[in-house]
Design brief:
This protein has about 425 residues and is mainly alpha-helical. It is built from twelve helices and two strands; from the N terminus they run H-H-H-H-H-H-H-H-H-H-H-E-H-E.
Length: about 425
């Protein structure tokens, strides 16, 4: 009797597994042959959810100041009216953000427009001065002058052909697409406006959403797995908040220092150059180089000697940022080495563009932490936890020792490296 029951269970198990395999195969071929329709549906859903994405990002960035204000308001002012403290913290946070943006635009925008206008006015004179300098240099050398004139004629013919074949059709396309560009800008502003409303509602309901998410998680997963998932989510939250807050503060300080020293050293277009340096410094690893090149070119158009001094100043400033200021502000925010930072920026930037460049480092730090935990778990399960602290000899020196001593490996202090897995705690 027991044997028959076991056979029936085994049979039902085989039938269930076969049905699941068949269903998964059907779903796979369905997705394979409907890939274009699925991609269109995903893009349509993304366009619909853009305001909620904007609102979610803004709410996430404002969550910390809201929590800080609410905590202190409940303790000192609104002790009996807790709901009023929550509302006031949201209004105060949004007001502070709008005031900062207004002050930034009011202070920076006029000087930026002045710098751009001066550059536009200066370009014709710079071209004329360059032409006079070239004519003076070529006046005593007719052979070189002939070569230069021939080259200039060739460049003029190529430019004329490019303007006829490529530039005019491109301008016509730009004029034709002006209406779509305007509609895109209007749609983006509308999404930002709706996103602001979503941000306010999200901030007001953030505790309710967190409580509902926890309840759903514990209703689906076992308590042990739910605790592990929550711990990883908290770690990712600390990683993102620490990285972005530290990076924004670091870039602000670098921009202000660049502006102050640009004024002291007499660099032209100080405000425009400082804004470029500060904004691009937000980008990990490549940011300082991206901002230094156009800034140096802007100064080169006005004064080549000061451009050289600016390059020297930028090198000193970036060394100060990379070795002193940045490590202090971002200490422990990711725990990644320079190699992994470069790897994360390159890979995520190639996959997701500018968003990937900004978020690649904290995302990869979370992935790195998950891999670290899996390695520690595997070593603990296999009884090899001592490998986390043992010394690893260099392969070449180990082989040399084995050859000298008949194949028996010996420890070599000069070539030992310590494994770092598991050293980084939360």
């Amino acid at each position: 009797m027991q044997f028959e029951q076991d056979e029936k269970r085994r049979l039902w198990r085989y039938v269930t597994v076969g049905f699941l395999v068949l269903a998964l195969g059907i779903l796979f071929f369905f997705f394979l042959f409907r890939l274009r329709e699925i991609g269109d549906w995903i893009r349509r859903m993304r366009a619909i959810l853009v305001p909620f994405i904007y609102g979610g990002v803004m709410a996430y960035m404002l969550r910390m100041p809201c929590n800080f204000l609410e905590k202190h308001l409940k303790k000192r002012i609104f002790r009996k009216k807790q709901k009023l403290a929550e509302t006031f913290s949201i209004v105060a946070s949004l007001t502070v953000v709008f005031l900062l943006l207004y002050l930034l635009v009011n202070l920076v925008a006029p000087q930026l427009f002045a710098s751009i206008s001066s550059i536009a006015v200066m370009i014709p004179g710079a071209v004329e001065d360059a032409s006079k300098w070239l004519e003076a240099k070529l006046a005593d050398d007719p052979v070189l002058e002939n070569y230069v004139l021939t080259a200039m004629e060739g460049i003029g013919q190529k430019f004329q052909a490019w303007a006829t074949k490529d530039l005019l059709p491109m301008l016509e396309g730009m004029v034709g697409g002006f209406a779509s560009t305007v509609s895109s800008v209007v749609a983006m502003l509308a999404n930002l406006l709706i996103g602001m409303v979503v941000c306010i509602y999200t901030l007001a309901s953030r505790k309710t959403f967190a409580r509902q998410a926890r309840a759903m998680l514990y209703s689906i997963c076992k308590p042990r797995w739910a605790d592990a998932i929550l711990a990883e989510v908290e770690y990712a939250d600390r990683m993102f908040v620490g990285f972005f807050s530290g990076k924004i503060l670091d870039s602000t300080i670098i921009g202000v220092l660049c502006y102050v020293f640009s004024l002291l050293l007499g660099f032209p277009n100080a405000m425009l150059v400082s804004v470029i340096v500060g904004v691009t410094n937000v980008i990990p690893y490549f940011g300082p180089y991206i901002g230094a090149v156009p800034s140096a070119l802007l100064i080169l158009m006005v004064d080549p000697v000061k451009c050289v001094w600016f390059v020297v100043f930028i090198i000193i400033l970036q060394q100060f940022d990379g070795n002193i200021l940045g490590p202090r502000l971002l200490a422990g925010s990711t725990g990644l080495s320079g190699f992994w930072v470069l790897f994360a920026v390159t890979v995520f930037g190639g996959l997701f563009g500018f968003v990937g460049i900004l978020t690649g480092v904290p995302v990869f730090a979370v992935i790195y932490d998950l891999i670290r935990k899996l390695v520690v778990y595997g070593l603990k399960r296999n009884g090899k936890m001592e490998m986390l602290l043992e010394e690893v000899p260099d392969c070449g020196e180990t082989a040399e020792k084995e050859d000298q001593e008949g194949g028996k490996p010996t420890q070599n202090k000069a070539g030992k490296k310590r494994i770092s897995w598991g050293k980084r705690g939360r």
